[in-house]
Amino acid sequence: MITGGSSGIGAATARRFVAEGAEVLITDINMEAADALAAELGDAVTTFRCDVKSEAEVKAAAEAAYARWGKVDVLVNNAGSELNRPYDETTEDEWDHVLNTDLKGPWLMCKHFVPPMVKAGSGSVINISSLNGLVGFPLSTAYGSAKGGLVVFTRDMAIELATTGVRINCVCPGVIETGMMERWTDRMPDKEAAQTMLKGVMPIGRMGTADEVAGSILFFASADSSLCQGAVLSVDGGFTAQ
């Protein structure tokens, strides 16, 4: 189960999971893109419209998933919304949109998808946070607050789930070359300068790829990470090592 699975890290994760033999349910609000990806990847992929900000839609997605498969082994909370704006120019609606998508959304998904996992005694939840959830950046109060909250949410949930057989962990990507990053540089006065700056953020001297992040998600989904509970993995080309 991958939220926001039609593009970027979500789509790369869907491709990796299908390659490993998984059946994948992609939820998104962009059904045109989701259905196009499903057509590309074949019968192993099912799509379902779900706005993670809406409890009614999340509940419907959970009911549909469990009705079809009877169980969900892996939940990837990937859907997100970014915002780059000074704190005093951020509107209440913008703040609510980012927090509701990036933090409330994963909580709602866990609320409706995890209890059956607990009942079954197994499962893996992977929350996709961000480098912004670990360190401060200008113009990122809403986004950073949501992603930082998601890191702590992961740790809190890990303690609650510790003896249930359900694992929950968190991946924090650095600067990744995705459509979301492209949209951010498009809004800058000098796009080329913005891209150069972003590459300079990563000590390895380049942006990461969505597939590289998907590999980390696959690790947390697999039995190879059986001892990981509440782990927060930085996939940031060395940024947080500085």
Structural commentary:
By secondary structure, the chain is an alpha/beta fold. It has a single domain, classed as Rossmann fold, CATH 3.40.50.720. The protein contains 8 helices and 7 strands, in the order βαβαβαβαβαβαααβ. The protein has helices at residues 8-19, 31-41, 55-69, 92-120, 141-161, 179-186, 191-201, 210-221; strands at 2-3, 24-28, 45-49, 74-77, 123-128, 166-173, 232-235. A 4-stranded parallel beta sheet has the order 4-5-6-7, with helices on both faces. It has a 3-stranded parallel beta sheet with strand order 1-2-3, with helices on both faces. The protein is globular and about 50 Å long. 42% of the residues are buried. GO terms for molecular function: oxidoreductase activity. Belongs to the short-chain dehydrogenases/reductases (SDR) family. Pfam families: adh_short_C2 (PF13561). This is Bacilysin biosynthesis oxidoreductase BacC. Keywords: Oxidoreductase.
